[in-house]
């Protein structure tokens, strides 16, 4: 086998990997990191990364970023502390995060830490109670009554919230009634919405991100729904099933009555009427 | 003028003896398969009778054929909105009982039955369920007026008759029946083709044979409801519709279809007709009384140079035009006008024509003696036992003129031949009869020859199929000439 054949695929992978790592670290950070981290904006799920270089040495950081679970499994005490601070949430491995990219991310964090206000300082969201108008606007955004400005798909197409509609919303994604509680508050939820990190939502919203004037009402709405209490919307599927059953019955009755005079048989009635030369 | 060619047929009912040989020939070749047991692409019915499936002529129930109301042709059975509404259930389908539950007999019991006090019997076994069954009906249950108080009396064609005429039909020495063999009519305006939502049915361009594409059929069964002659059948085993294919594999190799070939009465004629496809829609919308004549006017004269030129322009091969000139069907339908389409009022424009049958003379019982009403050997056609109205309902869309014309001409031919061979009829009388019937001695001679002394080649003038031309329309035969090796159009199926 010629050397080119043996090496060829690896060269190809290397070139592709090169392309991936050639991605702008700032964009990568925005898409993958900002939903848990800020730089100078306080902690979200993960710690604030401002001056992180001062807290740990660079080689440790680089190793941790590439594979956090491995560090935890090794029994590293600092990694364990981080998990504890994040209330048990382990930082996931990020696809495409190569050691080289990790270095440039750390460089980026270093540079951004020195700025008075980093572009990754995160959303500032006040603690004041939301107004009913904001909640109503959030509901409208959630149900599609008002379109998302960047053309993202409407929330109800995949998610439901208790009391959102008679038959609930979509059931493809998780029920968001208690999402506010699960994500531990406004700031986390807002950051999450800024760049949704799950494999399903990330590709959908990468190009059609929510705008901050949409995130605030949505947070308001989800907060209100969480506070309204109640568990997830479990009655929805049952209602849907019963409605389907009733609808089927109604449809069958309508069909049956409109087809009362339908063709059933010719010969049997003929024989039963025993001819008489008339229409049997 | 848009000239097309159609392989058409004539069935001479005056010659049919009702032996069902045609049905058996067809059954053995084509429908002796699982799921096709109940099908009779060819069947022979007794008239009066309700036929197969029971009372197929009752379009109030079966909703077959076209409606020409409001100047527009519409299918009775379906339309686009109706298709949506009836998507799960087509309400005009014949039931299995209206055909019949196919059965066989447990012949093995005749040999294997344990010894007992009685002879063993072969019980009827359903070919659908495989269980013993009671036979309630069969494909020709009303054969030879069997069960006539139930079946024959309910013949739709008796509707125009007076109660008196109806009674007489079943009285002693007045009772009458004739046979009515049926296959697919390979219509010019086929309702089955129009109704198919999948586009699986089509009328073959080169010879007008109507076929079901077994790959495209999606079991909607709209064709079964739409065909007023009920000549499309659904195979419950393969889930596809099937119908008479006019034995096209035989036709393409120059042989007559099996039912034609096997006919012992030699009642069947087959040949090419050239017709004008441009006028089909217009003709199909004509009022009932004009339909027979209008349908006949679609058939073009294959000797007319203009028609020949137009046929050439449409790519009809000279050998097909030559076959059209020799076609016995052309003589019966267009020249002599004694062959008529069945139930033209369904407006599918059938291309199978029937020569209406002559029937025995009326008779009456007087003091225990049977007396003929007429002293004439060949009585007046109005004194025939089959009422003219009945034949008009079958072959004239309810109007007697065309049927009367055909019967008078046939009768005149009989007088003419009687004068020639026996001589107890004055030649002048025969001459007058012919003149009255719009005929001549030469024509009568020709009708007599093609009716009674016809050879195989005269009955079946099968045009060369020119499959090579048909194939060239679809694909280039030289496409793979320099390709590698040989192969399959679709992979061979092999067992493991």
State the assembly state of the protein chains. heterodimer
Biggest protein-protein interface? A-B, 16 and 24 residues
> Radius of gyration of chain B, Cα only, in angstroms?
24 Å
CATH architecture of the largest domain in chain A: Orthogonal Bundle
Question: Which segments of chain A are poorly predicted (pLDDT under 50) over 5 or more consecutive residues?
Answer: 11-21, 275-280
The strand order across the widest sheet of chain B is: 13-12-1-14
How many angstroms separate the termini of chain B?
56 Å
Q: What's the story with the biggest beta sheet of chain A?
A: none
Helix content of chain B: 25-40%
What's the rounded overall pLDDT mean of chain A?
80
Query: How many β strands of chain A by DSSP?
Result: 0
Strand content of chain A: under 5%
Largest sheet of chain B: 4 strands, mixed
Helix content of chain A: 40-55%
Domain unit count of chain A: 3
Which architecture name of the domain at 265-459 in chain B does CATH use? Orthogonal Bundle
Overall pLDDT of chain B, averaged?
A: 91
Q: In terms of structural class, how would the helical and strand content of chain A be classed?
A: mainly alpha
CATH topology assignment of the domain at 265-459 in chain B:
nitrate reductase domain fold
Describe, in plain words, how this protein is organized in 3D.
The complex is a heterodimer of chains A (280) and B (496). Chain A is mostly helical. Chain A has 14 helices and no strands. Chain A has helices at 3-21, 25-32, 52-55, 58-66, 68-73, 77-85, 99-114, 132-143, 179-182, 186-194, 201-206, 212-227, 235-258, 267-272. The longest helix of chain A has 24 residues, at 235-258. By secondary structure, chain B is α+β, with helices and mostly antiparallel strands. Chain B has a domain at 265-459: nitrate reductase domain like (nitrate reductase domain fold, Orthogonal Bundle). Chain B is built from 21 helices and 16 strands. Chain B has helices at residues 21-29, 59-62, 80-85, 96-99, 109-112, 163-169, 191-195, 222-226, 248-251, 258-262, 280-284, 288-298, 305-313, 318-325, 328-335, 388-395, 401-421, 427-436, 441-452, 456-459, 467-474, and strands spanning 3-12, 43-47, 66-67, 74-75, 103-105, 124-126, 178-182, 201-203, 210-212, 232-235, 240-243, 268-276, 299-300, 352-355, 363-366, 369-372. In chain B, strand 3 and strand 4 form a beta hairpin. In chain B, helix 16 packs across helix 17 and helix 17 runs antiparallel to helix 18. The mean pLDDT of chain B is 91. The interface between A and B is medium-sized, with 16 and 24 residues.
